[in-house]
Amino acid sequence: MDQRSQQQSCQAEHHEWGEGFQEVFRKQSGFTRFKKKNRSDVKAYFPKNNRTDWTIERHRLKIPTLGFVRLKEKGYIPMGSMVKSGTVSMKAGRYYVSVLIEAEEKPYDVPEGNGIGIDLGIKDFAVVSTMENPFANINKTKSVRDLGKRLKREQRRLSRKYESLNVRNKETKGEATRQNIHKQTIKVQKLHQRLSCIRENHVNQVIRKVIRQKPRFITIEDLNVMGMMKNRHLAKAVQSQNFHSFRLKLAGKCRRNGIELRIADRWYPSSRLCSECGSIRKDLKLSDRTYRCDACGLVIDRDRNASINLSRYGLAA
Ligand SMILES: [Zn+2]
Fold first, then answer.
1. Are residues 40 and 129 in the same domain?
2. How far, in Å, is the centroid of ligand 1 from the Cα of 306?
3. What is the distance in A from the centroid of ligand 1 to the CA of 274?
């Protein structure tokens, strides 16, 4: 069976950890990088040097030089697995540990379901040809929009704090607000983190549901040529959908489950083709949400039509 390296991450119990870290700072100069408190993502890499390094137990693991550290999220790292190396990182005031382990590739059943076409978009996150309901765009939900607003507000507060610090420094050499700036920075980072976790989780959920259908192949559009990417006004909306991460993760899952991932080339008119009779509409605009075929009279949701076409990509020219 194939050996495969995989990355497993989970969050470490950070309360008990702050102390441990400070001790390390004092003893070893190599860790001073961690002292840059305001950077949002700091990392330290630890190879396995000793036999007991990176020992994994249910609720704790042994990190070289730091010793045993309790885990806040348990069960993500398979017990008894061989760790080759690991990385400790800090993000938005929390500590994370990520390890590279050697594991046996799980065997999979040869997928026999129908091929699937997936159309990614702004209105909905994804329309899957074999599923009736599209996957929603999570950025349009109230909770995510509210979080975004809160983030903006806190970012403004942070920049105001910087401004007032400059004023103060001209008058006295006051250090008093540095702490407040740091506190506010963490606050902003935490909101960022929460948003990105929600978005990434959504991506994971969609992939899980699609893979569960065990299709023989999945076809998606080449992301670089998606019409929306070229549209400046939509660039931000596209970015916050994490399409890139979707494609990367989908590719990995497909590989591990024996599903062929097809990427439709840039000349494939997935939106303009009629999924019923195969004629092409040349005058379809990005704003046309419904596809109407002049030849056969088909009326269908634009994205659903595209997803059906993608599922047939490469079958008939
Ligand atoms: Zn037609």
1. no
2. 13
3. 5
